[in-house]
């Protein structure tokens, strides 16, 4: 009777177990997988055949393996940095991360760099600023804190920029794999890989073949790839991995080995077999089973024979042991390197202390100066000091920057170890355009090792001024999370974006800044930055369209830009009337279309591209003609500006110097122009002199050119100027003449002074005789 009631319970238990097994399988299948794939082929210096194909094929394979893939083909530096940043943000959701790069890679001073297609590398020092540090990828993956990360670098090809490098390092340097990660190289550290002659590179070809194999651990995948590459290249290329994995991971399928089945318990009674359909219905519906008729006692059932244990895979065990031995060998090598670095650090510290003691002894020998106290390590910043500094940081983003700067200067003088106050002083110097002083204080802050919200603002603003926008954004975001003044953070973000020519981001940050700070409280720095970022407002005015010679004549066209609300509109004039449409400003580049009419001959247009990164009084432009397809280079010169006065007119004789000297003295004219550009235009007083000169030039030039005596007088007046200008440019002969002229002038001044003194003494004697007095007495 109990057995009859137990059967429905066992059937229900079987259904629950099946449901749990199904949910566990789904959980395993739903594991989050994220991948970033980059393939760069279209290099200007040394283009490659296969990386773009490798990246596309790898992305397609990874999507088939359940990865959410971001694919970048022929990416520039800015695009790569943004993709890596977004990849790190996506990994924070957990799961498995995979980064694949194919293209040029190189190492400089032990660090690996991935080369974007727009990199401009001439010397070794350019690499840091033109390429993407592979260590940044590892850092983003490590910061995400996800379970597993895989980095694949098919980027060990020959260095195409090695002629400008001091070192002769080849290939990539070995990087330390953080815990729970694996770094795979197309070839061993210090070696180079082949780009291949087929559709894919040799390394990626074997990767694509092996990664599809189900049931292979990730370590076995790379081992099979290495075997295939070594066999194909005759041991010329040996792939390499650096691993610190703490478990097994399968790209495709699950482990081939399954646990042995649990032994079946001995039955307590023998029953008649139930047909399969009836059994399925019974387990699904859990229907009651009728009680069977009494049966005779069953014969004793023999104990079940245990299933034979699976055979041990000797080759697999040997491979695992070899991998473990290789890993231990690498860890031992890394430990030895760390110990050597620690010993070197201790030696340098002892050397520093010795030098400090020697400096103290040298200072003690001076009788008027007491020996300085020995330098003690910075104790950090106390909470009370940070609290005292806090009210002055918001003033830096407002009109009270002068008051805040005075406070921080006094705080640093009183407490040189107050890194938070020193950071505030550095920010005030940066906002008042004293970047050299600010760099010194930021370096002192970094040496202290202390971190506060104010210190993060100082570091982020300095990184932004140096053009490192990604690192700047990280520091400033952390500063805002830790309680820094939001208005100051937004002002620093706007500064960093403007320095990197990201005008849209700068305007967005300034909008948030203005939402926090009323207009009456905004400082001069913020207002000046708003004017610089507002390129639309700065483009309002009339411009001459000139060619490369900058000639402004009666045949020159003009372009007038105005603001209609927040929209920039334009109209053409001058020699020809035209309409301007499709005005767009992206970053520091403006594009628009100039549409003109030729009467009975129809109409045409030019597509203009203007470079707004420099002075907006003289704007370089290129114009593509729709009729003939040619590209014309030239300038837009603002009407009424000094640039217009300096523009080379159609008749060069309108310049005073040209009219006075003429063709035989053309070299003097060129010397004066170089002196104008290199000396006078660098100061406000010099620009005013140049402006006055060119304003008076056309009428005076014509009068001078028609009168020989005027030409001779102007040449005489300009001779010392030409001589000084040539001497300033480094002309040895001109310097000698200038020195001789100065000596003669000094000699003449001395003779004049002595003669004047002698004449004065003679007049005094004559006056004394006339008065009847003895010379020399009162």
What can you tell me about this protein's structure?
This protein has 778 residues and is of the alpha+beta class. Helices cover 49% and strands 14% of the residues. It contains 26 helices and 17 strands. Strands 10-11-12-13-14-15-16-17 form an eight-stranded antiparallel β-barrel. The termini are far apart.
* Number of helical regions: 26
Rg from alpha-carbon coordinates? 40 Å
Low-confidence stretches: 1-6, 8-29, 257-291, 365-379
Helix percent reads 40-55%
What is the number of strand segments? 17
Q: In order across it, which strands form the biggest sheet?
A: 10-11-12-13-14-15-16-17
User: Beta-strand percentage?
Assistant: 5-15%
Main β sheet profile = 8 strands, antiparallel, barrel
| SSE class | alpha+beta
Rounded mean pLDDT is 76
Q: Categorize the overall geometry.
A: globular
Task: Put the structure in a nutshell.
With 778 residues, the chain is of the alpha+beta class.
């Amino acid at each position: 009777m109990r057995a009859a009631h137990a059967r429905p319970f066992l059937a229900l238990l079987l259904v629950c177990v099946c449901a749990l097994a199904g949910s566990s399988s789904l959980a395993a299948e739903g594991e989050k997988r994220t991948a970033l794939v980059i393939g760069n082929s279209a290099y200007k210096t040394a283009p490659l055949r296969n990386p773009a194909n490798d990246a596309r094929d790898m992305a397609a394979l990874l999507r088939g393996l359940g990865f959410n893939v971001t694919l970048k083909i022929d990416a520039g530096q800015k695009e790569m940095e943004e993709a890596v940043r977004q990849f790190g943000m996506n990994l924070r959701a957990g799961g498995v991360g995979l980064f694949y790069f194919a293209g040029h890679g190189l190492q400089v001073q032990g660090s690996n760099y991935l080369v974007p297609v727009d990199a401009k590398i001439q010397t070794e020092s350019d690499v840091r600023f033109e390429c993407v540090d592979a260590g940044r990828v590892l850092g983003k993956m490590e910061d995400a804190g996800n379970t597993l990360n895989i980095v694949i670098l098919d980027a060990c090809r020959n260095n195409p920029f090695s002629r400008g490098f001091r070192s002769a390092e080849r290939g990539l340097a070995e990087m330390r794999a953080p815990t729970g990660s694996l770094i795979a190289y197309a070839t061993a550290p210090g070696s180079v890989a082949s780009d291949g002659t087929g559709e894919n590179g040799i390394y990626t070809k074997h990767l694509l073949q092996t990664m599809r194999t189900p049931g292979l651990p990730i370590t076995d995948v790379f081992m099979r790839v290495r075997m295939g590459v070594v066999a194909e290249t005759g041991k010329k290329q040996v792939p390499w991995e650096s691993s610190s994995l703490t478990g097994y991971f399968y790209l495709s399928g699950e482990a081939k080995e399954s646990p042995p089945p649990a032994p079946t318990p001995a039955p307590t009674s023998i029953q008649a077999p139930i047909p399969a359909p009836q059994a399925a219905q019974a387990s699904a519906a859990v229907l009651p089973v009728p009680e069977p008729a009494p049966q005779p006692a069953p014969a004793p059932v023999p104990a079940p024979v245990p299933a034979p244990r699976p055979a041990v895979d000797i080759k697999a065990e040997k491979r695992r042991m070899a991998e473990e031995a290789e890993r231990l060998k690498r860890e031992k090598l890394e430990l030895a390197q760390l110990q050597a670095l620690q010993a070197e650090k201790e030696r340098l510290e002892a050397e520093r202390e010795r030098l400090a003691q020697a400096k103290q002894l040298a200072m003690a020998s001076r009788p008027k100066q007491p020996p300085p106290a020995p330098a003690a390590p910075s104790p950090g910043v106390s909470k009370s000091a940070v609290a005292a500094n806090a009210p002055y940081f918001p003033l830096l983003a407002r009109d009270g920057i002068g008051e805040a700067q005075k406070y921080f200067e006094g705080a640093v003088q009183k407490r040189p170890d107050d890194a938070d106050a020193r950071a505030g002083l550095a920010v005030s110097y940066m906002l008042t355009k004293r970047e050299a002083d600010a760099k010194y204080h930021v370096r002192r802050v970094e040496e202290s090792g202390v971190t506060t919200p104010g210190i993060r603002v100082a570091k982020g603003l300095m990184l932004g001024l140096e053009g490192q926008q990604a690192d700047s954004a990280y520091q400033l975001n952390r500063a805002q999370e830790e309680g820094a003044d939001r208005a100051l953070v937004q002002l620093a973000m706007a500064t960093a974006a403007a320095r990197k020519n990201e005008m849209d981001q700068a305007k967005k940050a300034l909008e948030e800044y203005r939402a926090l700070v009323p207009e009456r409280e905004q400082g001069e720095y913020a207002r000046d930055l708003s004017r610089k970022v507002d390129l639309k407002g700065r483009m309002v005015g009339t411009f001459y369209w000139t060619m490369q010679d900058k000639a402004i004549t009666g045949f020159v066209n003009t372009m007038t830009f105005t603001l209609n609300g927040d929209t920039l509109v334009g109209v053409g004039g001058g020699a020809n009337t035209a309409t301007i449409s499709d005005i767009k400003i992206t970053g520091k580049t403006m594009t628009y279309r100039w549409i003109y009419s030729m009467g009975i001959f129809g109409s045409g247009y030019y597509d203009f591209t203007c470079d707004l990164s420099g002075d907006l009084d003289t704007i370089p432009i290129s114009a593509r003609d729709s009729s003939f397809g040619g590209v014309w280079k030239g300038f837009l010169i603002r009407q009424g500006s000094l640039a217009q006065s300096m523009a080379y007119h159609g008749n060069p004789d309108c310049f005073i110097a040209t009219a006075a000297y003429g063709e035989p003295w053309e070299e003097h004219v060129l010397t004066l122009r170089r002196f104008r550009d290199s000396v006078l235009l660098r100061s406000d007083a010099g620009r005013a002199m140049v402006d006055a000169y060119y304003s008076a030039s056309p009428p005076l030039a014509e009068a001078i050119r028609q009168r020989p005596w005027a030409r001779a007088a102007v040449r005489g007046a300009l001779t010392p100027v030409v001589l000084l200008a040539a001497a300033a440019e480094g002309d040895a002969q001109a310097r000698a003449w200038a020195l001789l002229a100065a000596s003669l002038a000094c000699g003449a001044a001395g003779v004049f002074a002595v003669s004047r003194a002698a004449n004065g003494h003679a007049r005094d004697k004559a006056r004394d005789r006339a008065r009847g007095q003895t010379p020399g007495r009162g």
